[in-house]
Amino acid sequence: MNILSKLFEVLLQVVVFSLIPFIWWFVTARRKEPFLSWIGLKAVRGSFLAISGCILFFFLLCVISQLWWIPSLLPADATVQSTYAGMGWSALPSAFLFGVIQTGLSEEILFRGFLGKRLIARFGFAVGNLIQGALFGLLHGAMFFLVTTPLKAAVITVITGFSGWLLGWLTEKGSGGSIIPGWLTHGVGNLILSMVQAFGWL
Hints:
Blueprint: H1 3-28, H2 35-38, H3 48-73, H4 92-123, H5 125-142, H6 150-174, H7 180-198
């Protein structure tokens, strides 16, 4: 894929995923807090041990699910990362844009920065974070109901939903409301999975 067209696609997704949060903020909170701070793009405040422990657990979950569970549940070409198969280092620029910005940043803005924060404010952390994690899992799992059995798609939905819950915990409990550690964790996880495909390590 042409890197300029990929860059346009990436920026478009970030804008689209930020649009509803921006409108909501503009209507309800623009006089209380700047937009970037309101969605969690702010300084990290939290325990280094809690943040690093959560990130390590997230990566272990990614490794276990992506290397063992998910490949046994899906056809080989069912994930976006499979488009990088066999590309080697030439996949890196596109995989970085896709993993860190297009999905990592845009999904953290929408799910943890917007939905998670609003749901937690409304229902408390336990319920609000559970709902945002479930929505994250359902959004990612829904597409797999078309390419595999309902049971396998449901397992993927639960795994992804738990990942979303964990990123919500990292944002709210580990990082003082900042989405930056979750964004970097999510983005680097995506990048690693894409490069694993690029070098044929699966």
